[in-house]
Design goal:
The protein is mainly α. 64% of the residues lie in helices and 0% in strands.
Length: 80
Amino acid sequence: MIKTNKQKEIAWVWFVARYKKLGYKSLNQFAIATGFQKSSLSRYFHLQREIPSGTMSALCSVLKVTPNALMKVIGEDWRN
């Protein structure tokens, strides 16, 4: 599915707001603290790359969201 610029903006803004709400001041700080690659996080939330299924649980855990909530943010229907 092709993502619109609006969808990409919404996903990125949500991600930044989420990690800031959790107390991280920057993407770099979040990446270092959680062990995720900064470039991968950027690609996931700019909707340039799908979040691998094996990464989804860990990412949801550090963001403190449900998989369903994360899937809605990135514009995927988990029921497919």
